């Protein structure tokens, strides 16, 4: 048997077999049936100090005496090198298509002190350095980060290790339970990754299939790293609707409590906070549930008619007397014919409505089609007249000319303005920052890292004084981090396009918008401070 992973994507599994022979047999069949590439096994069935019930075509890596953790490699294309082999923990380096991973399987029995196993794992992580690492194991530890129930001391130890070594937890706290036995139910099987983009872990799930063990299988796919520069530049839009807000607030509160900006510049501090917020969004991202949608032509009236037809069918089918059964069958057939005809009419109406929507007189949606297909299509951006009377000759020249019009630079007066502002610019209060957040749409205009204003607002609510002081320092010293100036500007043409600059309007960056509101407030109230946002850049 030869397992082959297509396009570098391969599937991993973790399961605690609870030293059950029949569970081992079921897992062996599932490896063949579902084409698993490698399986992390905890507490396997052992006979004569060896692991049994798996095909001889699989490569098995276990400690030679009564192992409690190990791996089964079913993909023959993997190049495997054992790094560390002990009863409770085993580490392998696997190579596939010019990329190497270190996979670690660990089992931490509930009767054993978890700190000993964690210390052993920490030593191994220090030795591995910057390699791509996946850790799969039954830690017998609880936390709201990977389960819906309250955590315990063992869970705190795992979280402390994850924070120390910058490990990402791939588990979702709303997943199926991973343990269901006589002792109760729990979520104790965990996948941690290091130096691997969390977006490469796809289709992560705790299955509810029968395993004949008191644990359930944890299954996931590892997909290729995105190497397309155009596609990788696009960032996911992060709002509180996309994340598990409770878990996010727990991580955020813990970060703010432990964060120290001593010895760091303002720009370094802001970059670290932004990166931390982005990582917290990734860790607490909601899993997409597959919801079956109705057809575009389906209507509530069809729903009612379908229910009526099904009721008539059940009524005539359960009728015992032939004469009454015939009458009810005829009534059902009549209603069924009318229902079928109404479906055909609904499909025709829906298709005609679609055709009418395609033929638009107003071409305002051309911009959105341009954005959707922006990889190889630059649209029809017309030439723009420069100040000297000449016109632009390329798409890039037109774009730069429009950007220079909306975001002009006045470098000659920046230094003088900064000197004035350092001593005389009034401070903005916490209440005023809160009013700015109330006035803006918290789900629009994400920054280059994809963070929308409601994510930033959560950070503001956790530590209002810190956020306000940070913004005041930025305004007082006209310090705006480089990351705030990186934005994908949307240039949207107005009706009646000409050759002037003003025929295009733009969408602002949320961080700069917040700063702009602060500066404009001071402009209108204090005329002597003639600084505008264009000069701050």
TrEMBL record:
It comes from Araneus ventricosus. The lineage of its organism: Eukaryota, Metazoa, Ecdysozoa, Arthropoda, Chelicerata. Residues 102-218 form the Endonuclease/exonuclease/phosphatase domain. PANTHER family: DOMAIN-CONTAINING PROTEIN, PUTATIVE-RELATED, ENDONUCLEASE_EXONUCLEASE_PHOSPHATASE DOMAIN-CONTAINING PROTEIN. This is Endonuclease/exonuclease/phosphatase domain-containing protein. SUPFAM superfamilies: DNase I-like (SSF56219). Pfam families: Exo_endo_phos_2. GO terms for molecular function: catalytic activity.
């Amino acid at each position: 048997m030869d397992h082959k992973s297509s396009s570098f994507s391969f599937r991993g599994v973790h399961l605690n077999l609870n030293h059950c022979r029949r569970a081992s047999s079921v897992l062996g069949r599932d490896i063949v049936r579902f084409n698993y590439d490698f399986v992390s096994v905890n507490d396997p069935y052992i006979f004569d100090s060896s692991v049994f019930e798996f095909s001889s075509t699989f490569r098995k890596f276990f400690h030679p005496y009564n192992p409690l953790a190990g791996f089964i490699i079913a993909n023959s294309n993997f190049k495997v090198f054992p790094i560390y082999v002990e009863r409770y923990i085993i580490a392998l380096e696997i190579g596939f298509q010019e990329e190497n991973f270190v996979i670690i399987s660990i089992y931490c029995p509930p009767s054993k002190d978890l700190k000993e196993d964690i210390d052993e794992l920490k030593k191994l992580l220090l030795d591995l350095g910057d390699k791509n690492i996946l850790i799969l194991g039954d830690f017998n530890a609880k936390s709201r980060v990977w389960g819906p129930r309250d955590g315990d001391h063992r869970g705190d130890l795992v979280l402390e290790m994850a924070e120390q070594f910058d490990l990402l937890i791939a588990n979702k706290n709303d997943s199926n339970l991973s343990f269901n036995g006589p002792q109760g139910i729990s979520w104790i099987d965990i996948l941690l990754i290091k130096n691997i983009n969390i977006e490469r872990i796809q289709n992560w799930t705790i299955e509810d299939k029968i395993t004949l063990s008191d644990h359930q299988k944890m299954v996931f796919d590892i997909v290729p790293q995105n190497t397309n520069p155009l596609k990788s530049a696009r960032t996911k839009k992060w709002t509180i609707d996309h994340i598990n807000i409770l878990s996010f607030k727990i991580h955020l509160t813990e970060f703010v409590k432990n964060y120290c900006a001593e010895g760091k510049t303002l720009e370094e501090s802001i970059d670290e906070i932004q990166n931390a917020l982005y990582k917290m969004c990734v860790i607490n991202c909601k899993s997409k549930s597959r919801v079956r949608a109705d057809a575009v032509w389906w209507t509530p009236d069809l729903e009612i008619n379908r229910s009526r037809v099904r009721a008539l069918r059940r009524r005539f089918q359960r009728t015992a007397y032939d004469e009454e059964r015939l009458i009810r069958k005829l009534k059902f057939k009549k209603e069924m014919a009318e229902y079928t005809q109404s479906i055909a009419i609904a499909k025709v109406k829906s298709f005609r409505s679609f055709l009418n929507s395609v033929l638009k007189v107003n071409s305002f949606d051309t911009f959105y089609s341009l954005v959707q297909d922006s990889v190889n299509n630059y649209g029809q951006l017309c030439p723009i007249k420069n100040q000297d009377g000449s016109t632009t000759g390329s798409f890039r020249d037109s774009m730069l000319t429009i950007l220079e019009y909306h975001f002009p630079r006045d470098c000659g007066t920046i230094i003088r303005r900064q000197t004035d502002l350092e001593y005389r610019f009034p401070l903005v209060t916490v209440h005023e920052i809160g009013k700015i957040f109330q006035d803006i749409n918290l789900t629009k205009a994400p920054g280059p890292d994809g963070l929308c204003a409601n994510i930033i607002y959560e950070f503001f609510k956790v530590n209002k004084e810190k956020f306000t002081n940070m913004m005041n320092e930025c305004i007082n010293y006209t310090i705006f981090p480089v990351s705030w100036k990186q934005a994908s500007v949307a240039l949207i043409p107005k009706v009646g396009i000409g050759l002037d600059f003003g025929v295009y309007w733009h969408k602002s960056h949320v961080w700069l918008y917040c700063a702009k509101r602060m500066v404009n407030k001071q402009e209108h109230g204090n005329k002597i401070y003639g600084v505008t946002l264009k000069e701050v850049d």
